[in-house]
Amino acid sequence: MADLRFERTEKMIQFAFLDLLKTTPYEKISIAKLARVSMVDRTTFYAHFDNLSELADTLIENALAPFVAAFLESKEQKMKRNFDSYTFFSHELVDHLLSNRSQIETVRELPLGANSFDHRLRKLFTETYTTFLKLPETDFTIFLFVNLAMANFDFILKNSRVPSKKELQLGLKRMESFLK
Questions:
Q1: What is the pTM of this model?
Q2: Is 52 exposed, middle or buried (CB count within 10 Å of its CB: 0-12, 13-18, 19+)?
Q3: Cα angle, residue 113 at apex, residues 105 and 92 outer, rounded to 5°
């Protein structure tokens, strides 16, 4: 059974880190400063995380978890033939994104290169589309779908809704006219 005090302290450290990131660049956050802000001592911080990178990674994993769940659900739907390739962003996922927008936007800003939120989300989209479309990840179609998914994600965060299929079709027609 999990120790609730341990879990509560870990969450407190995570929330303090997110709050600190709103005013302080990641590179300027020290464990001492985070410990002070989260009202724990450094020893307590190290009981939960080895370093700030591990803490950042935990936040990214938590932010990506609903995507992983949505993709698994989509995979199950595809097996049942109830799959719509455009609707990865289920109502539950969209609600989660909108309810946690500030936290997600903060996590997206973490400068972690290949371990960053956006990089890892792109990788999830790539893996999902290569599986569903049965195309190699180097196929240009995969790049288009991944970028469309990232654009949907950005659109949802900015406009608080999923773009409709009609909006997608209109956007693609406009793009096509520019390519002529």
A1: 0.86
A2: middle
A3: 35
Sign, Cα dihedral of 112, 118, 120, 122: negative
Delimit the domains of the chain by residue range: 1-49, 52-178
The C-alpha torsion from 29 through 34 and 36 to 39, rounded to 10°, is 170
Enter the tokens of residue 130: 């290569």
Distance CA 156, CA 11 (A): 26
The 8-class DSSP code of residue 163 comes to P
Quickly list DSSP for 21-64. HTTS-GGG--HHHHHHHTT--HHHHHHH-SSHHHHHHHHHHHHH
Helix (H, G, I), strand (E, B) or coil at 136: coil
CATH number of 1-49, picked from 1.10.10, 3.90.1150, 2.30.30, 1.25.40 = 1.10.10
Query: Which tens digit of pLDDT belongs to each residue from 72-102?
Result: 776 666 555 555 555 666 778 888 899 999 9
Count other C-beta atoms under 10 Å from residue 8's C-beta: 10
